Amino acid sequence: MMDLQRLFIRFALALLLLTVIAGVLASFAFLFPANFNTILPFHELRPVHASAALFWIITGAACCVSYFSGRQSKAFMVLWMLTIVVIFVNYGFQNYGGREYWEFPAYLNLPLLAAWLFFMAVFMKRLPKGAPVYYWMWTTGILFFLITFLEQNLWHIPWFRQSFLREVTIQWKANGSMVGAWNQMINGLSVYLLVAISGNAGLARQKKPWFLFFLGLFNLMFNWGHHVYNVPNSNWMRGVAYGVSMTEWVIIILIIRDFRHTLTAARKFRHLVVYRFISAAELWVAANLLLALMMSIPAINRYTHGTHITVAHAMGTTIGINTMLLLAAFGYILDVDNLADRTRKWLQISIRVNTLSLGIFWVSLIIAGLVKGILTVDHPENSFFEVMAAVRPYLEAFTAAGLGVMIALGVICVIYLKHSQRKQTV
Questions:
Q1: What single-letter DSSP state applies at residue 318?
Q2: Tell me: the pLDDT tens digits for 350-399?
Q3: What sections of the protein cross the membrane (predicted)?
Q4: 422 in a domain, yes or no?
Q5: Total domains in the fold of the chain
Q6: Of the residues 127, 153, 258, 385, which has the fewest C-beta atoms closer than 10 A?
Q7: Nearest to residue 254, comparing CAs of 345, 172, 158, 187?
Q8: 3-state SS of the chain: helix, strand, coil percent to 5?
Q9: 118 part of a folded domain
Q10: By residue range, what is the domain housing residue 254?
Q11: In this model, does residue 287 exceed pLDDT 70?
């Protein structure tokens, strides 16, 4: 592994550490503003947490795709890392701009765009003949990230800013579709890992993965409709969104279950840690599928939109699915299953602690969202103070569980960072 690639891996893991630390601090700042407002107020911690999470997912996916495909762009890695560092330096000086999730000065989108174009130029130079399905997942994910990134920046054109409704609709649509783009890349990584661990290249050429690819592509193009239920739009958008929303996760579950049944005991033991990450992701795929289907029903979305249930869905997907699959991919790259028994035991314990803590974290947010939604929609006479007073106990439980998530993921990151210093990897 070249030194720059190793640095890129460490950079991605550092973003994950920043995500969980800033997230826990933001939770405490929200609950106890009097203690944090003079040091690290919530309004300063939130963009750091949101941007770190966003960049962890995108950087982690791009890093693993680059490594597994053997198509690494030095220009992309250097420019991408430098720009993100500058973004957080701007946050440190309270210099903001942009839009939701991209709250840094808008001009920094230009080097991000240039970096991604370098990545695309190297990756898409030539698609291997008879490429397996995960190559097509990576290719479409990379392409549609570019499209949604450009769409997310349409607000720079004055015509889009002339109408608040128009701009909000485009922003929500673009951010929803962008999730589908990086899901394509991460789904491709999951299929690649299943092939690599099982030794069965045929898994990437079966009908189910190809169906998953086309369904995932259809999802990222059309299931964004449920993100804009609360703004005026055509009913056909809601219908399409409800019909296709999150159906790709069902296929992922089937693929992983089929894979589990075909593994021999020896192979499962050899790749135990990586397999545990994949299994943890499977659990959260099922949980978030159920939640997403419920949220996609317009009558229920009326209560859930903009509440802590939306946060629960985002966190469950980001931590439970995307982060677990990315840590599985990084674990395979770093060959963590050949670490000392004691180290592997710490990784396995951390996975369990993360799953349990995230479960409490997730349920607390759902209950908080239900309470807030009902008190706000059905009882508009309630003041905001009264609503938040009723929600607070569940937010306290969520914050306590967040500490468990931070510790578990922190231990995993530290082990990975330490192990990444080794010169030889798989």
A1: I
A2: 999 999 999 999 999 999 988 888 888 777 877 878 888 888 999 999 99
A3: 50-68, 75-94, 106-124, 133-150, 185-203, 210-229, 235-256, 277-300, 312-334, 355-377, 397-417
A4: no
A5: 1
A6: 385
A7: 187
A8: 85, 0, 15
A9: no
A10: 128-263
A11: yes
